[in-house]
Amino acid sequence: MKKDPIIVHAMIDVPTGFFALPVVNIKLDTGEYQKLFDYFPDEISFQPSEFLGLTIREANQLKFNKDKAYLQS
Q: Considering the entire predicted model, what is its pTM?
């Protein structure tokens, strides 16, 4: 059974500009780099260490859980 790739490095790029959103970029244990997602920093926040050891699915679930908690607060 093939296992899902694991995030081994994460970086949050905070672009400049009025409408620019922070972007979470990751490196997987396969060596692949990719953009994971962007987010609204006035609603939720992340630290790169939160993504280490997670799969892409788990990282997206983390964002979903933080969004949900914000909306319910």
A: 0.90
